[in-house]
Prior knowledge:
By secondary structure, this protein is of the alpha+beta class. It has a domain at 87-123 and 142-228: 5'-Nucleotidase, C-terminal domain (5'-nucleotidase,  domain 2), CATH 3.90.780.10. 38% of the residues lie in helices and 17% in strands. A hairpin with a 2-residue loop joins β7 (186-187) and β8 (190-191). The chain is globular and about 70 Å long.
Amino acid sequence: MNTAPVLKLRYMLSMVLILGFYACSHKVYQVQDSKVERIFISDSLEEREDLNQLIEPYKIQMANELDRVLTYAPVDLSYKGMNTPLGNVITDLMLEEGNKIYSQRHPNEKIDVVLMNRGGLRRSFTKGDLSVRSMYELMPFENEAVVVTMTGTKLMEMVNFLRLTPRNHPIAGISFKKESEDKEIMVGGELIDESKNYRVLTNDYLQKGGDQMTFFLDPIEVEFLQIKLRDMFIQHFEKVDTIQVNQNPRYL
């Protein structure tokens, strides 16, 4: 059988397709006409009942999720002052939940210290139920959990910063005298060793030097835990019927 005509036909069809594609891909389109209308949003605009009906089921679903109770606070949780109940609860849970994630990635290694910024916690809570909505009010930002590995010298720099600043930023895993240059700084129950490296869990805002925390810059390593802090709070409190407040002071 002579296949030459068939091959020739296939070749010609291929060339037609290639040329057609090339022509289409280089076709230039021009806008012939366009209209722009500015609509100013104000209370003078009439409500659209059809749109209200469309979004109503989603509003109800969202409200139900936000009002879902996570846990119970047996005492008032204030963020004001030094060694605050709220600050201790939040940094303690960050140390616990952060280490669960970190130890899965790095067996036999752990996070040593937690540092949050005072401005990152946006409200206090009175004794009672805490809901998903409470977590959004507490942490309205999309901050992520970040582990920063730093030298012991850098950790000392962090301590000196915390001693000088008038704001009492929440901490966990570390304790020291606030108004003193005392070298007795305890990390995980042991004296700080400036020759060692330490892992500090914080948020991505501080990790970039926010709130003048420049000691986080030029670290040994930075590792994102791929979880937002607010989600970490929610996941933790979902498993806790009643919050246990650790009153052990960090600032002595």
